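G., the chain you wanted modeled:
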Amino acid sequence: MKISGDKPYVLRTYLKKKEEEEKIPQGEKKETGALRPDKVELSKKAREKQFREIRRLVDQAPDVREGKMATLKTAIDDGKYRVKGEEVAKKMIKEGIDEFV
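Predicted structure as tokens:
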């Protein structure tokens, strides 16, 4: 940001505003709105552009984790893939409970 013009005036204005804000008790600053957080709003065009970019990235992502699938496929083909029935049952019960919570 470039500030031009009467720089001492700009500085005095800033310091005066800062002094006024410091006089407000800490608990009241938020309630009175003396110190408002910064806020950014994107235009509709910018939101649409951002959405298109996110959508493009999602479309490029693979549907499955190919590395994990290759590891599992090899383990199954080699007969080394073992599933414990008790663990499967626990996960099924947990997922069933999570649906109702």
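The helical segments are 7-23, 26-32, 44-60, 66-77, 85-100.

Shout if anything looks off.
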